[in-house]
Amino acid sequence: MTFSRRSFLGSVATALGLGISSTPASPAQPQATFDLTKEDWLDAFSKNKALGAPLHVSRFVERIYYLTKPIAWAPNPGQERFRQVDVPVGFITDFASIPAPFWPLLPPDGEYTYPAIVHDYLYWDQGRARDEADEIFKFGMEDLRIPRWKIEAIYGAVRVFGGGPWDENARLKTQGEKRCIKVPASANATTRWEDYRKQKDVFCD
Question: What CA–CA distance (Å, rounded) separates 166 from 3?
């Protein structure tokens, strides 16, 4: 998901104009962290029945991450027309691609990280319609009981501005780009994604 700063601001303003609460989370609430040894934070995403295994990721020097274990989303009662989503080990993601000026309010590794990765995968796989992918993202955020103003802001942004990333993914796929690496990866703390992706035999078949 990629939005311009101006366009995303417009979406947030629209959502906040709906008369719903815009109060951000208390500073006392647990915040996401890039310290991937903190399993308690990662495991918190597994508590809702619609979401699958806990989130386990690793990263390159850049803010590019890959799954070290698979994740999934399954429909809740009343959502049966939507098929389960299974995201494989090694899938490459940037979490929620939110412009940096908005990170204090909507960080890329916020509580919506799990459904954001599912959404990234659906936008890359394109095995179902884009509007269905966006709906599943919204359902995933609801599963995590994320504040309504955040759901409306993020969902509204992907509905309005997601067409560009969707089309760009389709173009990149036709050019042979891949978004799934073999895990365990032959990477270390100094490995950059732009270098790693040029190596041979690092991508999934």
Answer: 12
